[in-house]
Records
---
Amino acid sequence: MPAFRSTLDGHTPGCPRLLAGSNIFLVKNQKLLTPDLSNGGVAGVMRNVVVHQATKMGFQVEAGLLRIEDAIDADECFLSNATRGIQWVAAVGKKRYFKKVSERLVSSINQTHVAIS
């Protein structure tokens, strides 16, 4: 997990901050949580696509200050950027995550973009 750990040396103690041009998304119940732009979120195309598609799928999307505890409490965690798309995070420390929502998002985004082209 070195790649994910390296993103957690936040500018606010105990809060994740991404350093590699990616956004982190946490899934808890029907909520998608992500840092707002002033707390490490990266403004960009893929972030907008994920937020839009998740909203269409019935998720409530909240942007704000995330804490490490939020990541530990989440059911799922994934990263996104325009170059790599959506990347599921398997674990943080001993916490293991599901891969359900990220797979559904990838499928939904692919179907939407295939239908457009």
Note: The CA atoms of residues 3 and 53 lie 26 Å apart.
---
Amino acid sequence: MRTTGFGFSAVLIAAGAILAWAVTHEAEGIDLNEVGIILFVVGIGLGLVTLAVAIAGRNTSVESRHDTVVDGHTVREEKVTEYSG
């Protein structure tokens, strides 16, 4: 299961919360509180998307075929392996 999005989501949420509610510095031309809210919302969205992908999982099917000649006759062996997770 690939869940690296959770870590990045947590970083965005933390940075956004700090900028939105803990920073009191006024920067000219940019509202740091608005940037914080945007990062916070994007972090929550990324976390939800990562959760949905992790829950859905991924199914993989591997097919293999092998032909062998036995006493002049071709014998075909087919194998299908299913992986989920």
Note: The helical segments are 4-22, 32-56.
